[in-house]
Sequence to fold (105 residues):
Amino acid sequence: MIRDRQKKFKFTDEIVAVDTVISLLFGVLALIALIFSVCYSVVLKGNTPEWIAMLLLITAIMDLTALVFAITGLRSQDGGAISKRIALVISIIDALALVGLYILK
Fold:
């Protein structure tokens, strides 16, 4: 008898957890958007348009999502510890920068 093997396709390998990849992506995008909005505000001397506020709101949502995925990525069995810690640190830096930005206003 010939036994048929099922082919399983994976889009990621077990080197990095999927939650960590999502957290890194959202964290880096949120950090870039935050830096852009602060630089844009400095160039315009505080007279920013309304879409900057919307960008900061989207940045806060992305950072919250990145933080949640970083915490769930820590519990995952896949991936190494370094990428998980980097994702968590980037998310925490984003959150602290957003809180600091709103306190300074």
User: Anything to note?
Assistant: Helices lie at 18-43, 50-74, 81-104. The chain has a mean pLDDT of 84. The CA atoms of residues 39 and 45 lie 10 Å apart.
